[in-house]
Design goal:
By secondary structure, this protein is mostly helical. It has one domain. The protein is about 80% helix and about 0% strand. The protein contains three helices and no strands.
Length: about 100
């Protein structure tokens, strides 16, 4: 069972790193939106192409009249924090019980 336990630990670590990296990409997208970025810049196009599939459905469901503020990055970041707090820790605990 220790092999499966180690596998779960590895999956949890990779998910945690990937979610943290994506959270920083979301933060970068939010910061870039404060200025008028060049839409033909490679970095700006990368940030938009990576984040828009996640942000657009949330933005579509939010109320229209928010005073021009986009709260979808905040909601995505809170979702990432929830997944890191719940799913990652659960995987670690399952792996610990399997190893014991």
């Amino acid at each position: 069972m220790f092999v499966f336990s180690n596998f779960l630990v590895a999956v949890a670590k990779i998910l945690d790193i990937a979610l943290s990296f994506y959270m920083w990409i979301i933060i970068g997208r939010a910061v870039i939106s404060w200025v008028n970025p060049d839409p033909y810049n490679t970095i700006v196009r990368f940030l938009y192409s990576v984040t828009e599939p996640v942000l657009y459905p949330i933005r579509r469901r939010l109320p229209i009249n928010l005073g021009g503020l986009d709260f979808s990055p905040i909601i995505v970041i809170l979702g990432i924090i929830f997944v890191q707090s719940f799913l990652i820790k659960t995987l670690y605990q399952i792996a610990a019980r399997l190893a014991a």
